Amino acid sequence: MGAFVISRRFNDEYKFVFTSRKGKVIFTSLSYELRFECEEDIERFKRTIELSKFLKFKGSGGKYFFKLMLDGVHFATSRKYTTELLLQKGIKEIVTYASKAEILDFSSSESIFGDEEVSVEEEVED
């Protein structure tokens, strides 16, 4: 079904990506200062996806990508695709599944493994 995944950039700003059903990133949003801004823009996009525009480009390296426009404003940029057909498949995945996609928040600075150090000692048998 795909998912919107919220995370942090190295500069502590927030971003989100939309991933395909197979877990591959299709597009990455612009940066946000606050997490709730990500959530609001995701919800707005899900509600108004039919108003979105996909501007297609071919980069100097020969790869294809698109800029996602929402209400005439640059909203996100896609990953690079090797062919125009794959680019079109990425767009179709967004149009088909984004409105129903769940939102996953991985922006917390807490490690899911905790802060304790784990040392592994190898045992040598004689």
What does this 3D model show about the protein?
The protein is α+β, with helices and mostly antiparallel strands and 126 residues long. The protein has a single domain (3-105), classed as PH-domain like (Roll). The protein is built from two helices and seven strands; from the N terminus they run E-E-E-H-E-E-E-H-E. Strands 4-5-6-3-2-1-7 form a seven-stranded mixed beta sheet. The termini are far apart.
Helix content: 10-25%
End-to-end separation in angstroms reads 53 Å
Please give the CATH architecture.
Roll
Oligomer: single chain
Mean pLDDT, to the nearest integer, reads 86
> Order of strands across the biggest sheet?
4-5-6-3-2-1-7
Strand fraction equals: 25-35%
| Overall structural domain count | 1
The CATH class name reads: Mainly Beta
Strand elements, count: 7
Gyration radius (Cα, Å) is 18 Å
Protein name: DUF1508 domain-containing protein
InterPro entries: YegP-like_sf
Organism: Flavobacterium panici
Provide a short characterization of the protein structure.
The protein is an alpha+beta fold and 126 residues long. The protein is built from two helices and seven strands.
Question: Key terms for this structure?
Answer:
single chain; 126 residues; alpha+beta; PH-domain like; 2 helices; globular; disordered C terminus; YegP-like_sf; DUF1508 domain-containing protein
